Amino acid sequence: MTRKASAEWRGGLKDGKGTVSADSGVLSGVPYSFAKRFENEPGTNPEELVAAAHASCFAMALSAQLGNMGLTPESIRATAAVTLEKTEGGFSVTKSHLTVRARVPGADHAKFEEAANNAKSGCPISKLLKAEITMDAALEA
């Protein structure tokens, strides 16, 4: 299975502008720029898209892990906070912190924690990232 997205950039780094699109059509000519990435101008940027991919991948992986335990989640809310930092080799994504809140009837804290940790390390996007991945997972009543 292969999924594709594309980006087009025009101009210099700071004065240029780009667009990003996905074959599915969910993203189609979505603008991005230096200001959107480094100056908090509204709009998307690569790190936000990585965060969306990590959060959604993790939520699905957690659902699978819970299912393997005979548990069906009522809801899983996952947020990934991706950190971009300047390092010796240039800018790098250095961290992705997952915040997870889930309602899982019949789950105890030990089973939930085991499932969350397995999902954190087993989700394909976690495997892709070379960054430190941390998590704050909580089972809600």
Give a brief rundown of this model:
It contains four helices and six strands; from the N terminus they run βββααββααβ. With 141 residues, the protein is α+β, with helices and mostly antiparallel strands.
Task: Describe, in plain words, how this protein is organized in 3D.
This protein is of the alpha+beta class and 141 residues long. The chain folds into two domains: 5-38, no CATH class; 46-140, K homology (KH) domain (GMP Synthetase, Chain A, domain 3), CATH 3.30.300.20. The chain is 33% helix and 37% strand. The chain is built from four helices and six strands, in the order E-E-E-H-H-E-E-H-H-E. The protein has a three-stranded antiparallel β-sheet. Helix 2 crosses helix 3 (109-122). The chain is elongated. The N and C termini lie far apart (37 Å). 23% of the residues are buried. The model has no long low-confidence stretch (mean pLDDT 93).
